[in-house]
Amino acid sequence: MSLARLLLRELIKGPRTLPAPPPGGGGAEVGAGLAGTGRARLGRSLRIREVDAGSCNGCELEIHAATGPVYDLGRFGIEFVASPRHADILLVTGPVSRNMAQALKRTYDAMPHPKWVVALGDCAIDGGCFAGGDAVLGGVRALLPVDLTIPGCPPPPEALLSGLLTLLDLVSGGPAAPLLPMDGEEPE
Ligand code: SF4
Predict the structure, then answer these.
(1) 70 pLDDT band (50/70/90 cuts)?
(2) Alpha-carbon distance values, 67 to 15, 37, 79, 97, 117 (Å)
(3) Ligand 1 pocket: which of 125, 153, 160 to mutate (most atoms within 8 A of CB)
């Protein structure tokens, strides 16, 4: 089929992407709860360092969707950071490939305490469809202590939001960090 015909066919069919959530959707309620719990637990916003330990990039597409204009994780004070030294959560996607094992361990070791590990997607949980392959060690648990697993192939942005809220609820039993004043607020 010629490229012109292919383009015409796709134009007629319309977009293949899923429709956007309705107004007020997009995980707004869960996200607001997450922002409040994160602030109460940490005294500030939540920082995430993501490591692709060998994924097919499907999980990354959902993470990108979570930070895009519809779900917009940033509005809840959740931020992806480039340095593990700035991160509270290590978010791992994919099975742990042998090539990425050392980098993943060093990323974890570089993070300050308290720190938590989240395995996002079936592959990060137990190797998923890559389990048993010569190139993979298995799920993240083969290398690091995992605090939360978020199943799915791939998990949608709502699952990521709900999972992060669950994690913060789970760890909120410990001593909370003192609240830092927001811009314009007087310190407590
Ligand atoms: S869980 Fe699915 S989407 Fe995510 S890395 Fe594995 S195969 Fe890809």
Answers:
(1) confident
(2) 21, 19, 9, 26, 19
(3) 153
